[in-house]
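Troubleshooting log. The previous structure file for this entry was overwritten by mistake, so regenerating from the original sequence record. Sequence copied from the archived sheet and checked twice against the printout by T.R.
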Amino acid sequence: MGIWQLLSKMPHATCQTFWILRFQPFRSCSSRWDTERSMSGNGILGRPSSRTPGLEPYGFDVARWIDCQEGGRNLWNDAERPVAARELVDATIEELKQVKDRPFYCQLWFNDPHARLAPSEEQMAPFRRQVPEGFTSPFMVYAATVIEMDRQIGRLLNMLDELGLAENTLVIFSSDNGPEDIDVGNASWSAYGSSGPLRGRKRSLYEGGIRVPFIVRWPAVTPGGLVNNDTVICGVDFLPTLCELSGVALPDDVKTKCRGESMAQAIRGDKSVQRQKPLFWEWRFRIFNHPWNSSPILAVREGAYKLLFNPDGSRVELYEIPQDPGEYNNLAGQKPEIVKRLMEKGLDWQKTLPARTIKRQVVRTTPGQLSRKALRSRRQTGDRHLVRGWLHECLSTTGRRSHDEKGLVTR
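Regenerated output below.
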């Protein structure tokens, strides 16, 4: 049962839900992604089947731009990318005007700044700096894309004001992961995003890969200008949080299965809220770029501590996140009791996941077993990513069991 279906049980109200681009508003409105991706375990809602034009089986009343396609147009195409954010906001505004007199739930998912980015020359012009004409820089491409998305979000918020909805509409702005890496082929000209002082990027289970913005606007309830650096909130908390804020009780079977908890008080402005349930992550696939960003496969966060480790017990890393958000000081050797407790919880949780192959490209050879001639041949054929990926994995595997107490890879 989804958020939109539970919220339709709001007392004295008929909730409408809609999804624009990737997910959904309460008239239910939604868009993006297909069933293959949904079933592949990426956690993305898609069409129930090729025979179903919308997302009614999921409880949505309206679904727009599913998989970024509508009316013969595809917003993933390079030629459409400069206007993608505008088109999605236009569709959202169109639906909001239809439901402004009743409760609604809307999820608007932009495809920006997901690769591949292709802003227009006009959008990039303010960010050219000293880049020669005929060339672009990752900064130009990324900045132009993010600024355009920001501009369109501003249009949407202004429309809430014009429709008289702003005061009592909860708006949540967030993301799904840290910044993309420039080593990824379709982002090699655009991956300028920064994780700041945090270790890791997209795909990494270090904080730079999983910590994202969480901005709330609810003028009638949430104090303006408040900054909460203490409460840990995760996507699994959305269901119980939004239900509590809407006055909807979670059914017992949903309570049993839900791994999240209500953070309604934090949304209301209480900075003292501390989560009670642990959080879990798993990433079974390749992590790009520097070995420093390459995290173990599993991560568990409980209270102040975060444990990262491989299922076979290798690469055990423990960090006290409030004191060490950059994850430099590995405390595993100093706090074995915490390591043991969190590792047991992480392994128990992993057993509940669908069985799938771990697809990390772990190289079993040592650097001396791949000749210079072979490396030279790969460079000459343009296979730079393969060479870099091979070196990356060699460093990762040779340093895997030689992390010192500060978490630094020793070679």
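Residues 21-45, 361-411 have pLDDT under 50 and may be disordered. Archived copy saved in two places this time.
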